[in-house]
Amino acid sequence: EAAEELVKQLRSVIITRSKEGATLEEIIDDYRELTGDLLLDIFGSRQNLANYLPTIDGIWHWTGDGVILWFCSTPRTKHLVELINGQKSNVLAIRNHRNDAPVSYSVPADPVPPKFFKDNMRPPRKPYQSRYKQPYPTKERRWRPYNRSHRPKLPRADKLDVRLFGPSFHKHQLVGDDFFLSIAKCELDYSFDQGHEIAMSGLCISGLTLAEAAKRVEAAPYIASQVLVNVGTVDLLHGRQMIDLIQDFDMLMDRFRERNVEPLITTLAPIANTGGRSVMQERLCKFNEYIRSSCPNYINLDRYFQNDDGSVRFECYQPGPRTVTGSTMPHVLWNSLGRRHVLHELGNELANRICESFFWRNI
């Protein structure tokens, strides 16, 4: 029970610094202010604490510029992390505080969780002697993510709240693989979510398959009423059979409908890894036909990447394949021309739907 309470408190102090990450000294400092207890009395040394943190579910670390930063996010706390990430950082306060805390420990690749017993959870208190000369900063000087002076910016009128829904385009939440992820990052100026080995921004996730998308939609704390989906290319690149594509796609649609959402599905653009007719391209054509026949709301995205004779418009793709973090298969992604072409056509399609809906409501 004492160990569970310790885990909750450690998660709490790390989550409050989700935007910039927490150094070990900040964790020790925040824990002392939260509970009045010293983590070094519990663990004995900074190294022992650093060994323990990775054993907690949802906590990970990132190393950059010689500083080890700790992050925490679980399905139950994801909304808090997103709220904090949407707030403005007090960069000066963070920089000054971290300059006083050089790294004097290492993080093992495979940490071993310590054993907790009643007599070592709260050993006798010892007089605290800081190894640094600077005293603990007062509350007035300490940065807090929830400080009123750092209120998050309100979302733009044409965008959803990024803290809840991630990337969006004209009030449509985006769900997709590396193709939509590149649009979110390069064209819509959304940043990657921190602390993940796989590049992601909201529900735009590198290497996202149909089955994984279904799981993400089911588990997501927030799903917008309007969603724009482009998923399935990764399944084709990995050689999935047509029957598997159909089953996974139906499962994805079921997960959306369980959330009372009828998503707007885009057909898949041609895969530039292979030229001409191939088994992969034939499956892609059949899958696009299945989308058109089974979905009440869809956008024919594939036609914008084909010439009149049916050949692929390779000028819309990058010159060669590249590796992505979420898949073992190389991807030939859209280039700047292709990405802007997609946004232009999607914008036109959404505008047509809005005008059509307005017309039928007013006849």
UniProtKB/TrEMBL annotation:
Residue ranges constituting the OSK domain according to the UniProt record: 165-351
Coiled coil: none
Stated name of the protein: OSK domain-containing protein
Any Pfam family matching the protein: OSK
Taxonomic superkingdom: Eukaryota
Signal sequence extent: none
The species this protein was found in: Anopheles aquasalis
